[in-house]
């Protein structure tokens, strides 16, 4: 890697905007300010931390559950939209199918392929969820055991695990799972507010696609979403403006200090309208929306650059929006060297024009081809 590589622009640092140069090899070496007003020339590009997406099922026509080298294809497709790190996300499925998906992910996690985002690990979204709140998941749910999770964790590192806390012994498992370094998220749950609070007290760390696939905000019978709004520090949300109404997004932004954004992207991401795989099911992309045959939403075709633009369109300042697609997900995973532009951090960068369109992407010092 060329140690003299640099980019010029308005750089978002942990201390705020500076106009100048950011120098890097695989990691950021220095940020040198011009001592000019960073809000000046509109033609000077924005340089932000690369996006970190903790909920990715697919892209470019392939699905993580297909196993093999699909994770590489998915990571390459999302890198072109500014995602520099991600979690490969599973679906509820038969045990053998989940094992196959994790075996495929293991290689991509161990070695980042050229031109791809870094695959940080696994988000195990199923099968430890509620049959009453499947969403787009197939009806193949099971109750978790610690041995089951350990066996899967040994195949590929599980960083995030979605769980319905009201099922069986799930609540009692949360401390042991947390001790393995797994962030337990509450989701696809028919649980009550009280069960959500109990799970947080037991060590649950977040919530999976807030508002979707969970009991809601009924003022007489509050559910899991209410527990998130009242108590959570972290929760993920899909800001495609289809899964969650803008008013509910604004509510969550006020209530949850470190609300961060994910795509829940499917194989349909980056592809024309048509039929695609989502685990063992088929989904249909039409006019940017992904649905099951029944018409229910089934993941998305969202990319993280569009997520950022949607947040800004809702009224967030660019630095605030950037935190919710970069710094907060990095912090959630305990990654101090990603999601921020400072010396010593990985050189994960995205360069945007004044319309917030991606101009360049750098992953661990490698410039990504966008064509």
Automatic annotation (TrEMBL):
Domain of life, per lineage: Bacteria
The keyword Transcription is assigned to this record: no
Name of the protein in its database record: N-acetylglucosamine-6-phosphate deacetylase
Domain Amidohydrolase-related residue range list: 46-367
Keywords of this entry: Carbohydrate metabolism, Hydrolase, Metal-binding
Keyword Methyltransferase assigned: no
EC number: 3.5.1.25
Record Pfam families: Amidohydro_1
Family, per entry: Belongs to the metallo-dependent hydrolases superfamily. NagA family.
Alphabetized InterPro entries for the sequence: Amidohydro-rel, GlcNAc_6-P_deAcase, Metal-dep_hydrolase_composite, Metal_Hydrolase
Organism: Stenotrophomonas aracearum
GO MF annotations, alphabetized: N-acetylglucosamine-6-phosphate deacetylase activity
